[in-house]
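Handout, section B. The chain below has 200 residues.
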Amino acid sequence: MTNEALTRAREAYEIEAECIREMLNYFDEEAFGQAVELLAKAPRIGTSGCGHSGIACQHFSHLLCCIERPSRFISPAEAVHGATGFLTEGDVMVLASRGGKTKELLPILDICKRKGVKVITITENLESPLALGADVVLKQYVNRETDKYNAQGTTSTTALCVIFHALQTALIEETGYQNEQFAVIHPGGAVGERLNHKSI
């Protein structure tokens, strides 16, 4: 490996660590609390995004299922071909778009409004269409991506995942979710062994 490659690799740790530290300055307690309340009460939760945001949304849906908040990632392509039928009035849709203008998500926002589905948007751009049309907006902050061109979805993906992790962490407290419940639905792997050994 070249010295330049090694230097860039080390810088990646610093860039992302700095982003997480600085992002806390943009934490809106009121908006975050509203999001947690919506997610805690929703019978079902949809998530959607494109590219890296979509991959992070899939991760969030899995995290929600792990604390027994029924969730499904809805592909933007499938959303406009019937998949939004998963959601009914009183449910919640989480839309993730760094710029808040992702054109594939705009029809989903419209569908949710027509169906009475609450929308939480996570974006950097609080004046964007997806932010202005949402019921709750959570601010995403990104200092820069880790590659030298500031182009790849690296730091931005980490920032989005941190928000998702914070939401799941708060939901565990808000809903009173117990580790014994997790043991029932996660019997597999080393985690399952540890959880179920303790619950016996």
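Note. The chain has a mean pLDDT of 94. Compare this with the example in section A.
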